[in-house]
Amino acid sequence: MSKWVLSASGEKQAKQRAAEGVFDDVDIIISSNEEKAYQTAKPIADKLGKAINRLSELNELNRDNCPFMEQKDYEKSIKFCLEHPSESINNWETADHALERFAKKIEELHREHNNQKILIVGHGFTINLYFAKLLGVLDRVYERLNTNNFADWGIVKNHVVLKDIAK
């Protein structure tokens, strides 16, 4: 699953997001190491003439050890994973571990790049887990994830959510 790439529609939406200018004032662009996140960040980086730093610690919750699943089984697994964060299903990384990995890297980036605007392009599971943690609503992360669309974004400053990624 970490090898997934953007569809033609996803590429178009990423270009539209870049054209909106919402991220024109960022200092640093960082994406997960997964191609779909990089492809989402690339139109913004190209527009601003900035490099993209790719970091594996920001990757999506790892589901690569899982065999192919039908859509309804995959959806059930997502729900279980997020509602039972300390348990693994289908050999997936636990939600607790993914959140710990992601949050630790965000904290490190915050210290390294203090007072700089950082654009982090990541994935639905990890970003929603992080926002839910900051907001104290980890018990509702599955519901929050289901409100997201492609290229949704939020703002965090000094551990406070200024714009939520969830609707």
Number of strands: 5
- Rounded to the nearest angstrom, the distance between the terminal CA atoms is 26 Å
What is the CATH-assigned architecture?
Answer: 3-Layer(aba) Sandwich
Quickly count the domains: 1
CATH superfamily, called what? Phosphoglycerate mutase-like
Proportion in helices: 40-55%
- How much of the sequence lies in strands comes to 5-15%
- Which geometry do the CA atoms define? globular
Order of helices and strands: HEHEHHEHHEE
Task: Report the major sheet.
Answer: 3 strands, parallel
Structural class: alpha/beta
* Number of continuous helical runs: 6
Description:
The chain is of the alpha/beta class and 167 residues long. It has one domain: 3-Layer(aba) Sandwich (Rossmann fold), CATH 3.40.50.1240. Helix content is 45%, strand content 12%. The chain has helices at 8-20, 35-48, 71-83, 95-112, 124-135, 141-145; strands at residues 28-32, 52-55, 118-121, 155-157, 160-163. The strands form two sheets. A three-stranded parallel beta sheet has the order 2-1-3, covered by helices on one side. The protein has a two-stranded antiparallel ribbon with strand order 4-5. Helix 1 packs parallel to helix 2. The longest helix has 18 residues, at 95-112.
Summarize the structure.
The chain has 167 residues and is an alpha/beta fold. The chain has helices spanning 8-20, 35-48, 71-83, 95-112, 124-135, 141-145, and strands at 28-32, 52-55, 118-121, 155-157, 160-163.
